[in-house]
């Protein structure tokens, strides 16, 4: 009887990725001077497990490389070999190659034979005791022999739908590719369904790019670093013929990525757990957790309905029933908190990727950088964690490239020549605050203001530091003197802001010359529940997310000005903001109200203030967010829906979407 190996292969890929993360984390600790024997044992076990699994499924390239790793690590743990920088560098490079081999083994790309040959030769030289210079020289020669310099690159770029929603512009990337050399771009229409099956809210475009010229692969990869995780990307040398992986056992479709699996019991094992640590978690698909959260949300709504209906009951005659409902309310709230905790993950899942990135980028720029992390155990909703990864990458890269000075400049300024990047996370009220700070040169207020004037960006007289610094988050704004493969294209800070505001968060910039810069991000703890202001518009109820609400006031006709036909502006303490009628915007049926004075709710989203005209402020409450797009379709100005205690559906206002709509209309 044939055995279905697909689920075992999926587990191998998942565990191998976790093993590589543990290896990288441990190797970085070795690189920083730690010499704990158990640390080396943990790294060895990760390599050994990966080797065993790869051998079972016929992934010979992975088996070959992990065998060399195992040999080198075994010598280190037995004390036969000193732990030297030369060996640690080779092991870290091996982790990178193994990640690419895993991708190839899943059928998502070809095996990079040149990189495999180079790293294998490099490890053999380290094992043979060659000097660091000889290792680098001979490994480079192996690359040259294995693969001649490519004449260019074949690139397949397929954006995910959410790439467009976060403010990234794929055409900007394509134009940068054309700047690098002779570039031919064609459309890949293989993902297009029949005309009547097209979902207008989903991106179906993909591009095929043939880039001719002597361009390093790293330069091409850096162009796409801004959209990492938001696209399918394959880059292959034009000169290289197709190389396939070694024959393997039947492989199922690619295993779920790590982002599609969570560990239950609200805890995560350390990246380098002790050998004796007991197994304390199980793997559960996120879809199952989301289904559970959805059911608990329905229970909360049902409980609220029962509570609302019980208000009219006589408390004396129905004492036992009312006591039972109170107990149900407490149990429901406890259950809701416990289930929501399942989706909560420590921000260390994001923070742990940065030590390696900081090490590599600092070496590339010739800077000396140490990294500190604070509050790694602070928990945040998994959906939020997945979406803050790229913004944090931009901020850390900017801090190293723009913020920290070169070692000689730091010495001249009386500073430690090693700069410090600090990532911290903490809970503040119902939000999480993540800060990225550096002890570098700080932002140059005058240079930013001059660049803003050069681009025609008006700043108010006597603008505060915060107002000037916020200019760097405008699309395309950059003060870099020249474009490099790290920065200077004006891509990044605007994307950071769009990504954060799309999550209902905010970004603040603080900086002092010669002291450093601090970027503060405030985020909601979860996307499944939000605090909202309930407002009435005609006979409909809407929810305005409370973190977007600035203030509310009664409308005074003398403060309203009409321009360009029907467009209205509201004067708020000397400034004018767009005034939108919620009834007109969403077609709510108006209800006659005697002596009624409308109310303006001032909200701020996407860096723009606007006023929403409503009939009444009903109250403030937590609501369970339901996806309107999944259950109906996308509606401009609406981000979701919820069910109220009386069973009615209330729409949740998309403040950022309304603000962007005003900009586009202008």
Topology readout:
Layout: H1 6-31, H2 37-57, H3 60-77, H4 85-105, H5 113-127, H6 132-146, E1 152-159, H7 161-165, H8 170-180, E2 182-187, E3 207-212, H9 217-223, E4 231-237, E5 261-263, E6 283-285, H10 286-310, H11 319-342, E7 344-346, H12 348-351, H13 354-365, E8 368-374, E9 379-381, H14 382-403, H15 407-412, E10 418-428, E11 431-438, H16 445-454, H17 465-469, H18 493-502, E12 506-512, E13 516-524, E14 529-537, E15 540-545, E16 549-554, E17 560-563, E18 567-572, E19 575-581, H19 582-586, E20 599-605, E21 608-614, E22 616-624, H20 628-631, E23 638-643, E24 649-653, H21 655-665
Parallel strand pairs: 8-10, 15-24, 19-21
Antiparallel strand pairs: 1-3, 1-4, 2-3, 5-6, 7-9, 10-11, 11-13, 12-13, 14-15, 14-22, 16-20, 17-18, 18-19, 20-21, 23-24
Describe the 3D structure.
- Mean pLDDT is 80; it is low at 240-265 and 267-279.
- The chain has five domains: 1-146, Four Helix Bundle (Hemerythrin (Met), subunit A) (Up-down Bundle), CATH 1.20.120; 148-239, Alpha-Beta Plaits (2-Layer Sandwich); 286-343; 346-524, Heat Shock Protein 90; 529-665, CheA-289, Domain 4 (OB fold (Dihydrolipoamide Acetyltransferase, E2P)).
- It starts with 5 loop residues before the first helix and ends with a helix.
- It has 666 residues and is an alpha+beta fold.
- The protein is built from 21 helices and 24 strands.
């Amino acid at each position: 009887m044939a055995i279905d190996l697909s689920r075992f292969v999926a587990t191998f890929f998942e565990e191998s990725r976790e093993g590589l993360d543990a290896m990288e984390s441990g190797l970085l600790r070795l690189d920083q001077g730690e010499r704990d024997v158990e640390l080396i044992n943990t790294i060895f076990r990760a390599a050994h497990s990966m080797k065993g699994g790869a051998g079972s499924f016929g992934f010979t390239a992975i088996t070959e490389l992990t065998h060399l790793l195992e040999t080198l690590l075994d010598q280190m743990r037995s004390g036969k070999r000193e732990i030297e920088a030369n060996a640690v560098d080779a092991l870290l490079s091996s982790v990178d190659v193994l990640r690419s081999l895993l991708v190839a083994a899943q059928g998502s790309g070809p095996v990079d034979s040149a990189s495999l040959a180079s790293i294998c030769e490099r490890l053999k030289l380290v094992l043979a005791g060659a000097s660091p210079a000889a290792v680098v020289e001979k490994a480079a020669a192996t690359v040259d022999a294995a693969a001649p310099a490519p004449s260019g690159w074949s690139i397949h770029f397929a954006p995910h739908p959410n790439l467009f929603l976060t403010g990234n512009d794929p055409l900007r990337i394509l134009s940068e590719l054309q700047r690098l050399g002779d570039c031919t771009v064609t459309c890949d229409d293989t993902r297009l369904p029949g005309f009547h099956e097209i979902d207008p809210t989903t991106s179906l475009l993909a591009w095929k790019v043939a880039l001719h010229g002597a361009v390093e692969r790293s330069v091409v990869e850096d162009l796409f670093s801004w959209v990492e995780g938001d696209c399918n990307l394959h880059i292959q040398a034009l000169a290289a013929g197709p190389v396939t992986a070694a024959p393997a056992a039947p492989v199922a479709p690619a295993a779920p990525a790590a982002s599609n699996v969570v560990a239950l019991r609200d805890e995560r094992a350390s990246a380098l757990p002790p050998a004796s640590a007991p197994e304390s978690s199980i793997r559960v698909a996120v879809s199952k957790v989301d289904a559970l959260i959805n059911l608990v949300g329905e229970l909360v709504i049902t409980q609220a309905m029962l509570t609302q209906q019980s208000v009219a009951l006589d408390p004396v005659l129905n004492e036992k029933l009312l006591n039972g409902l109170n107990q149900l309310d407490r149990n429901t709230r406890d259950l809701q908190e416990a289930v929501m905790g399942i989706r909560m993950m420590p921000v260390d899942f994001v923070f742990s990727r940065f030590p390696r990135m900081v090490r590599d980028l600092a070496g590339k720029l010739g800077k000396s950088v140490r990294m500190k992390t604070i509050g790694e155990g602070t928990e945040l909703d998994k959906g939020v964690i997945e979406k803050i990864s790229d913004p944090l990458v931009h901020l850390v890269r900017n801090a190293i490239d723009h913020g920290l000075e070169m070692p000689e400049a730091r010495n001249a300024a009386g500073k430690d020549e090693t700069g410090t990047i600090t990532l911290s996370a903490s809970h503040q009220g119902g939000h999480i605050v993540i800060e990225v700070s550096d002890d570098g040169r700080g932002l140059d207020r005058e240079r930013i203001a001059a660049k803003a004037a050069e681009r025609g960006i008006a700043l108010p007289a006597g603008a505060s530091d915060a107002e000037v610094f916020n200019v760097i988050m405008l699309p395309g704004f950059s003060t870099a003197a020249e474009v490099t493969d790290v920065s200077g294209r004006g891509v990044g800070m605007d994307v950071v802001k769009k990504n954060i505001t799309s999550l209902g968060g905010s970004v603040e910039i603080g900086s002092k010359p010669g002291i450093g810069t601090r970027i503060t991000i405030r985020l909601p703890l979860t996307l499944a529940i939000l605090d909202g202001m309930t407002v009435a518009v005609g006979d409909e109820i809407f929810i305005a997310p409370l973190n977007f609400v600035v203030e509310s006031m009664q409308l005074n006709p003398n403060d309203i000005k009409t321009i360009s036909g029907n467009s209205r502006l509201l004067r708020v303490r000397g400034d004018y903001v767009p005034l939108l009628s919620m009834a007109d915007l969403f077609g709510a049926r108006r209800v006659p109200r005697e002596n009624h004075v409308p109310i303006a709710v001032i909200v701020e989203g996407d860096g723009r203030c606007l006023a929403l005209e409503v009939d009444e402020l009903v109250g403030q409450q937590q609501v369970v967010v339901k996806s309107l797009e999944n259950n109906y379709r996308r509606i401009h100005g609406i981000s979701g829906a919820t069910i109220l205690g009386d069973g009615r559906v209330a729409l949740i206002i998309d403040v950022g979407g309304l603000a962007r709509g005003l900009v586009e209309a202008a």
